[in-house]
């Protein structure tokens, strides 16, 4: 079979002929009709995961069963199937309770064994992990479910338990983030999407986001988010011209310094004034004028009173109400320094979001999401946080003082797919809308090493059967 093969960590990958896989006991071999190119694949390529070389990446897939191993009872050759990226053993207490996504003996195609950037892939414990793909669902749509879409679905429904009418902040409008926007709107929630790329935010608006924020990029790195965006550095980043630095948010011009950001009001005094219109979803015009970078005290990670984004503390238990209407314009305003993102969210949502999701996975984006919450809010960490430069810092002072819930989410077990598939069948969810492009194996091999610097406005899918 043809496959994308990684011979060395962090080096170019090639497409070549390799031996066909054999169905393991209890498992199957699937002919891959679609597979997703995900940031997690890049993490493996970069050496952030332990993989045995040579290696074939790929963990989001859909296709047709072509071989069945001994002991498989529920599946036959010719079945259309997909699979979660975490495959449970099927024997342990976690798997038996329907929580295969945390199985201690889990297998992950593209990580623990060769994956789906190939014409064929072997899958383990088929009776526990395979999911039937309905005839009305394309292979491309089904493959998109395995990691990003299903992860976003469970993060919002099973972990954060997002409710209709609540505010959700999504940091990072890539595959996971855009999936979260679509799912949240189907659940009746209101959504603020944050990203460094205008195209990604346009996609979020098209999916129904109520507001979007364009984060500043001049010091950032990484896809859909990075470290130290804006002018300052550190978790929460320093804000404002000449702003000081400090863990969990520095001060603005002339502001105080100190761990957890300034004193008294959860952050130092903000920098320059000005208003930043934020695009709204329903009319394509600006939703509101949010004060510019540091026009008031920016919320950091201290334990004092939460400030409103427009200057001065809020009048309620959280931050202030949304300021007045901006002049109608379809264009987003100048980028917002990262340290200003939480303040904008607090202003837009009247006190911070109820739920926040970091769909990127960096110290900066995690802090922005946490600091965007209102008191007793729920944060879900979906983006991987590899400790490349040490374990990332999290603004725990805010977590403690505001009684925030920090939740991890690691995919979704096959047992939980029926509720998601029902919403797809009803038309409430349409994951195929999230697919930006479909490429072949050769183009996928070229894209993988630079995927951390990509600026997708949706998912990139691979068709291994293309010439």
Structural class: alpha/beta
Q: Which geometry do the CA atoms define? A: globular
Total strand count, please? 17
Unreliable residue runs:
218-333
Spell out the helices and strands N to C. Answer: EEEHEEHEHEHEHEHEEEHEHEHEHEHE
- Note the gap between the termini: 13 Å
Largest sheet: 7 strands, mixed
Count of alpha and pi helical runs = 11
Q: What oligomeric state is this?
A: single chain
Structure commentary:
- The protein is α/β, with parallel strands linked by helices.
- 21% of the residues lie in helices and 19% in strands.
- The chain contains 11 helices and 17 strands.
- Strands 3, 4, 5, 6, 7, 16 and 17 form a 7-stranded mixed β-sheet that branches.
- A hairpin with an 8-residue loop joins β1 and β2.
- α4 crosses α5 (175-186).
- The radius of gyration is 22 Å and the shape is globular.
- It starts with a strand and ends in a 5-residue tail after the last strand.
- Mean pLDDT is 78; it is low at 218-333.
């Amino acid at each position: 079979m043809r496959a994308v093969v990684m011979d060395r960590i962090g080096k170019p990958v090639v497409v070549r002929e390799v031996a066909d896989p054999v169905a393991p006991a209890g498992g199957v071999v699937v002919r891959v009709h679609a597979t997703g190119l995900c940031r997690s694949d890049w993490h493996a390529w970069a050496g952030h995961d332990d993989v045995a070389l040579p290696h074939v990446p790929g963990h989001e897939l859909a296709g047709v069963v072509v071989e069945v191993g001994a002991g498989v009872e529920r599946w036959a050759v010719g079945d259309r199937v997909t699979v979660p990226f975490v495959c449970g053993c099927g024997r342990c207490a976690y798997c038996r309770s329907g929580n295969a996504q945390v199985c201690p003996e889990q297998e992950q195609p593209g990580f623990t064994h060769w994956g789906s950037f190939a014409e064929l892939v072997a899958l383990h414990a088929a009776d526990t992990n395979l999911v039937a793909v309905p005839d009305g669902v394309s292979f491309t749509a089904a493959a998109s479910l395995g990691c990003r879409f299903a992860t976003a679905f469970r993060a919002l429904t099973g972990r954060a338990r997002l409710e209709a009418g609540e505010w959700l902040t999504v940091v990072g409008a890539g595959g996971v983030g855009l999936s979260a926007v679509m799912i949240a709107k189907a659940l009746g929630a209101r959504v603020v999407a944050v990203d460094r790329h205008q195209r990604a935010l346009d996609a979020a608006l098209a999916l129904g986001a109520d507001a979007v924020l364009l984060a500043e990029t001049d010091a950032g790195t990484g896809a859909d988010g990075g470290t130290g965006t804006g002018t300052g550095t550190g978790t929460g980043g320093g804000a404002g011209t000449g702003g000081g630095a400090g863990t969990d948010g520095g001060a603005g011009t002339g502001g105080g310094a100190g761990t957890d950001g300034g004193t008294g009001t959860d952050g130092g005094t903000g920098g320059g004034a000005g208003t930043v219109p934020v695009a709204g979803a329903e009319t394509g015009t600006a939703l509101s004028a949010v004060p510019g970078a540091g026009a008031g005290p920016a919320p950091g990670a201290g334990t004092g009173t939460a400030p409103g984004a427009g200057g001065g503390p809020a009048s309620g238990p959280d931050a202030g109400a949304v300021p007045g209407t901006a002049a109608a314009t379809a264009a987003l305003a100048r980028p917002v320094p990262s340290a200003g993102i939480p303040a904008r969210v607090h202003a837009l949502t009247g006190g911070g979001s109820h739920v926040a999701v970091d769909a990127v996975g960096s110290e900066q984006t995690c802090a922005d999401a946490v600091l965007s919450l209102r008191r007793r809010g729920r944060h879900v960490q979906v983006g991987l946080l590899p400790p490349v430069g040490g374990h990332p810092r999290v603004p725990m002072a805010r977590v403690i003082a505001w009684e925030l819930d920090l939740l991890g989410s690691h995919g979704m077990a096959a047992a939980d797919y029926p509720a998601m598939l029902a919403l797809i069948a009803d038309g409430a969810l349409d994951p195929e809308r999230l697919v930006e492009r479909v490429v072949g194996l050769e183009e996928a091999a070229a894209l993988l090493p630079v995927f951390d610097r990509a600026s997708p406005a949706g998912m990139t899918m691979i068709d291994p059967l293309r010439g």
